[in-house]
Amino acid sequence: MSPNDSKNSGGFFNSLASSITNFGSVMTKSVNGLIGYEGIEVINPDGSTEDAEEEAGRGRWKQEERDGYWKMMQKYIGSDITSMVTLPVIIFEPMTTLQKMAELMEYSHLLDMADKTQDPCMRMVYASTWAISVYYAYQRTWKPFNPILGETYEMTNHNGINFIAEQVSHHPPMSAAHAENEHFAYDCTSKLKSKLLGNSIDFYPVGRTRVTLKRDGVVLDLVPPPTKAHNLIFGRTWVDSSGEMIMTNLTTGDKAVLYFQPCGWFGSGRYEVDGYVYNSAEEPKILVTGKWNESLSYQACDTEGEPLTCTELKKVWKVAEAPKKDKYQYTHFAHKINSFDTAPSKLLSSDSRLRPDRYALDTGDMTKAGYEKSILEERQRAEKRTREEKGQPFVPKWFDETEEVTPTPWGDLEVYQFNCKYLVHRAAADNSEINTDMESTQFNPWQFQDTSP
């Protein structure tokens, strides 16, 4: 059975998958005109289209605010608004996209397990589960800050990992990240695309994620599903991902194909994930099932995808307990990411933790956060004009642009690779060899950069 047949075969998940998919398609029918606004679609994830008008009156906005934001956003319907719209800080969380990339490291012990196991199929179970584990954190309904060009984020003191991310391009917005410990190396180039649909927005993960497991040197490639944020202006905002996640062992040909179920009426199918690990001959070997906001389990299966007799589901991952009634729906790990507890010695002056607007919002000063955000954005525009006048393109410090352009389901991607400069810097910093003169030359995106020679 081929991976593409996993949802249509007579296997373990067939009846469940088909019924959930039908529910999802019914639920997402347009409810335009219910509240007198053209192009509005309001969806209650816990109800149906019948209560859309009631749901539209809920959410974080007052009526006059909803009207104002709707008038502002109407002209962008159908557009990629990733970096073209200035948004109020009231919808932001005190974290940047670079920090959000680091959240993928919370359950990195699963990659350690993938590196240690000698079973090639279990390797795919552990690695694909790691890729799914971050979706609990990604369901937050607050927007992270867009990184300033040249902004960085560093993280240490978690599972022996050194993590570094850098904003390598502003138009289009692109980030690159590298993480490493004794078991694996993680490399990612991300160029998120979006499409505003009115009261919702689709996010397409244009990017390349590669994980190298060090013991055997195998390389894993990840293609995640798209994500949709519903009820941006009218109704309570909620996030859902649906479609296939594919992780491929580029060294052996083994593959994990996991299907994220769309949310149906009254929450039916929401959070559910199921699929199979296939060997290089495209034969299903292990079924994986669970909910991305709770836990995942696995079980050996036959070539038809049916569970083997005398086997049982075994839990491979469970989401960690999260703080109760947290303002930004943060996990304990998200709080660590924002703190200096995970910062290395001699933190780069361009680190996200030091952003004045992010820091102001984190301390509860929304007025100052909005002011600092506008100042940073104007400085970035001014610096761009200066670079263009002098014919000096921006050059990232810790990542190099390669000549490789890789295709993705949502467009081509220019690939950046981690360079050794950061390792030299970090070794010097850890040995306290960075002197005052060296520190003074570090890139600081929170101040206007003079690009003169």
Automatic annotation (TrEMBL):
UniProt superkingdom: Eukaryota
Record InterPro entries: OSBP_sf (IPR037239), Oxysterol-bd (IPR000648), Oxysterol-bd_CS (IPR018494)
SUPFAM superfamilies with a match to the protein in the record: Oxysterol-binding protein-like
Gene Ontology molecular function: any one: lipid binding
PROSITE patterns: OSBP
UniProt similarity note: Belongs to the OSBP family.
Stored PANTHER family: OXYSTEROL-BINDING PROTEIN-RELATED, OXYSTEROL-BINDING PROTEIN-RELATED PROTEIN 3A
Protein name: Oxysterol-binding protein
